[in-house]
Amino acid sequence: MLIDVTINTPRGLYKQTKASIVNVVSPDGQRGILPNHMPIVVSLTVSKMTMEEEKREAYAISGGVLYFHNNQCMILTPAIENVNDIDLERAIKAKERAEQRLARGVNDENVDMARAQVALQRAINRINAKQQG
Ligand code: ATP
Among 10, 26, 88, 126, which residue's beta carbon has the most beta carbons within 10 A? Predict the structure, then answer.
């Protein structure tokens, strides 16, 4: 028994796959979703997500929501990358930019601190996911 997983982003369908377990992180902590899990809606944190597909695959996910019902798992997220597709240099540059904005924002009311903070989280998450695999 496998879970049918569909992942959508604002760019459209990211992936449709089958998995024997979907491991995600919500504000309540880690959750492993197995076939025949009860129906749920889970909000996702900016975190690493893994699935047992043909082999174990790891992703950096930039938040979103997961809906599971009847062995169908739907994930809607602003952005997701398989760790193999993460451009580490790009993430490091994004982290530096966000850190500079946050430092500048202490004295500059034009800086959107919340936006810079989540950009920093996304960048750190990508770096960690890439390094952990
Ligand atoms: P950047 O400033 O580098 O664009 P960002 O956090 O603003 O980073 P997002 O808006 O989250 O980027 O994502 C835009 C698109 O680029 C998404 O499709 C996302 O999957 C992809 N993406 C972002 N950063 C990386 C990265 N380091 N490696 C691979 N793809 C990335």
Answer: 126
- Span from the CA of 133 to the centroid of ligand 1 (angstroms): 18
Report field, pTM of the whole predicted structure over 0.85 = yes
Please write the tens of the pLDDT for every residue from 11-47. Answer: 999 999 999 999 999 999 999 999 999 999 999 999 9
Q: Is 62 in the pocket of ligand 1 (CB under 6 A)?
A: yes
List, in sequence order, the alpha helices (H) in 1-133: 88-105, 113-132
d(CA 18, CA 35): 11
Protein residue with its CA nearest to atom 17 in ligand 1: 79
CATH numbers and ranges of domains, the chain: 3-83 (2.60.15.10), 87-132 (1.20.5.440)
